[in-house]
Structures are given as C-alpha cells and as structure tokens.
Amino acid sequence: MKTEDILAKEDFQKCVDFHGHLCPGLSLGYRASQAGLKWLRAARASDEEIVAIVETDACCADAVQVMTGCTFGKGNFIYKDHGKIAFTFLNRESGNGVRIALKPDVMPGDERHAHLIKKIQTDSATESEREEFKKLHKKRSLEILEMPIADLFNLNEAKIEVPSKARIEPSKPCGRCGEPTMASKLSDLNGSLICRGCQTSL
Prior knowledge:
The chain is of the alpha+beta class and about 200 residues long. It is built from eight helices and nine strands. The chain has two domains: about 5-155, CATH 3.30.1330.130; about 170-200, 2-Layer Sandwich (Wheat Germ Agglutinin (Isolectin 2), domain 1). About 30% of the residues are buried.
C-alpha cells in the first residue's frame, strides 16, 4: 500500500490524533500492530480478547493501544521496561502469540537528524531548524510505512502464559495515609497495612 493511502486510513489517523503527531516511532507501532493482529488472525479487541506486551514506553506504544484496543485500564496492555522496540501480542481465545522485534540497523543513524532532535529537546532550535527537523522526521516516518514487514521486524511465535484478566478487588485504607488501596498492593509493616507510596517515603 502506498504511503498516501496509509496516511489517509482512518486507523492510522486515529493513531496520529491519539499520539499528537506523526513520527517514526508511531509508524513502527502501527506496522507492528498490523503484523501482530494479522499473525493472530484477530481484529481489534473490543474488550480483553487481545493482550499486548510492550518493551518500551516510546511513541510506538501509543499506536499499539489504538490499533489493538489494549489498555492499562483493561489489564491487557502490559509495559516491560526493557528499552526495546519489541512487542508481544497474544490471543486469549486461541492461545496463539507472536513477539515482534525491530531488526538491527533498520534505522541507521542520521547525524543531522540526531543533532536537530537535541536542539528541539533543549528548545534551542531556530525556526528553520524546526522546519528541517519536521521534514526529516516525516521522511523517516514514511520510509517505515513503506518498508516490507520482513525488512522491519523479526516475527517469532510467542509461547508464554497468557496473563490473567484485570483484577477487581475491594480496597482497604492505608495505615499511614488513609487512602483507599487495592488490598493486594498493601504490605504489612509493624502490624499496619501500608501502601507502596508510603513505603517508599519511609
């Protein structure tokens, strides 16, 4: 599919709207989600049918949420702080799963792009540099949308236990701050049930 057709697709536009802008990371998350759902032979989850495990908190994670319907609130969007552009998609009904990981050297370094990113982050870029950055950023984003999946990612069957569904349980007040807390998240400290927030401030 041509990039202009992808950019016009409703699902891709929803990803951009949710994330706030088009960027290479969002394109990676979009492509990975498409590949994951295709592998599972599944549609976007209306509830908890699909589980998504992301190994990064970068831009691509937003596209995964939009495309798969997996969210923190439903308990089927799981974050692992591994710093990798890698995703595991699981189908609760079939038990099938796939791990999709970015291949090495897919996105070769671009010194000018990296330099401009630093200037944008430190708010020291001129207006012309900001425009140049937008053009380079969009160019990389579109290149990712055009690349064959096999050139972007390694896809391997994931044989892991499907995580349990979101837990619903009563809350109990923390013995220190008094705030209602999920009972299983409280720990006994000298005979008093204390929340994790209070434990870290002791």
